[in-house]
Write a structure and sequence with these properties.
alpha/beta; 356 residues; 15 helices; binds pyridoxal-5'-phosphate; 43% helix
Length: 356
């Protein structure tokens, strides 16, 4: 067994890199696929639910899968700088991989609408942060325009190398299970990830690595649900800032994934998303960020209604790590104030007996 050195090396023969390409990697990928034990019992249906915990990537989200490829190819092409619009995780990832490569990262973020941990990361990795008084969609438009006027490579998921890197998550799931799941549930924002998973599953099925492909289920926040409404949303709002997107760039690809897989889109109130986030933490010990929990909220609703039938094997992608968004977590647990007691054996003993 050799030391794991990242997803490009692992899936080299399925990615557009050459023998002499300098690989920019932080050993991303190879994230755990964890079977839920308590939540399926609580739902009361016979189903196998696995979560692909992408929050354990180097910068804490699945964006690292795409970024290792995008930055590797940018550097190969001689680029000295990358740029992205971001709801937070893309900027953190771009900043980290730029630091690793020794190039500059410029990130456009919506002022006041990115989670604290993501901002802290991006500052630490020393990206050039440009806050705009506008949302992600506006930032995306600006990035596309400025790239025509300045020597920067866009590393948003409109960069096809991002999709190539991210498709490896589907490979890992099939490699772990020995088959593709019946249903794959994931949050949808800009829709790059649903595009990437579908590409990966199709590629493995075409090459007969596995015999089946999943039904793709894309879930959105009710205030930012263009795929459910069937039209773009101009002022998206949700507590799940990572999917606060109204004009998804991979619109056509996501619809193709839905159509070809026989899947669907659905939307969830912020309260449902936060409840699923708390459930995963409380009953399974898995702390993901709010947007990520939309996948489980969706799976639970569709299992309960029978849309996803008993006997199914389901994978939910948990796109990012809960510790990125401490403010939401503290708000969720506002009633669970820690008790403060005397620093004495007696007082600690009493606190334990009270808490049992
Ligand atoms: C980027 C992101 C999403 C949305 O993924 P898309 O590819 O834009 O659909 C969901 N959750 C988290 C945590 C993210 O960082």
């Amino acid at each position: 067994m050799t030391h794991y050195t990242g997803l490009i090396n692992r899936y080299r023969n399925r990615l557009p890199v050459g023998a002499n390409t300098r690989i920019i990697s932080l050993n991303e990928g190879n994230t755990p696929l964890i079977q839920l034990q308590n939540i399926p019992r609580m739902i009361g249906k016979e189903v196998d639910i696995y979560v692909k915990f992408e929050g354990l990537n180097p910068t804490g989200s699945f964006k690292d899968r795409g970024m290792t490829m995008a930055v590797t190819k940018a550097v190969e092409a001689g680029s000295q700088a990358i740029i992205c619009a971001s709801t937070g995780n893309t900027s953190a990832s771009a900043a980290a991989y730029a630091a690793r490569a020794g190039i500059k990262a410029f990130v456009l973020i919506p002022e006041g609408k990115i989670a604290l941990g993501k901002l802290a990361q991006t500052l630490m990795y020393d990206a050039k942060i440009i806050q705009i008084s506008g949302n992600f969609d506006r930032g995306m438009t600006l990035v596309k325009e400025v790239a025509d006027h300045a020597p920067v490579t866009i590393v948003n998921s409109i960069n096809p190398f991002r999709i190539d890197g991210q498709k490896t998550a589907a490979f890992e799931i099939v490699d772990a299970l020995g088959f593709a799941p019946d249903y794959h549930c994931l949050p949808v924002g800009n829709a790059g990830n649903i595009t990437a998973y579908w590409k990966g599953y199709k590629e493995y099925a075409t090459d007969r690595v596995c015999g089946n492909r999943p039904v793709m289920c894309g879930y959105q926040a009710a205030g930012a649900a263009p795929f459910v409404l069937g039209e773009m949303v101009d002022n998206p709002e949700t507590v799940a800032t990572a999917i606060r997107i109204g004009h998804p760039q991979s619109w056509d690809f996501a619809w193709a994934a839905q159509r070809e897989s026989g899947g669907w889109f659905d939307k969830f109130a912020d309260e449902d998303i936060l409840a699923a986030q708390k459930m995963l933490s409380q009953y399974e010990g898995i702390f993901c960020e709010p947007a990520s929990a939309t996948s489980l909220a969706g799976a639970m609703r569709d299992i309960k209604s029978g849309k996803i039938p008993e006997g199914s094997k389901i994978v939910c992608t948990l796109t990012g790590n809960g510790i990125k968004d401490p403010e939401i977590a503290m708000m969720q647990c506002a009633d669970a104030k820690p008790v403060t007691i005397d620093a004495s054996l007696d007082a600690v003993k009493r606190a334990i007996l009270d808490g049992l």
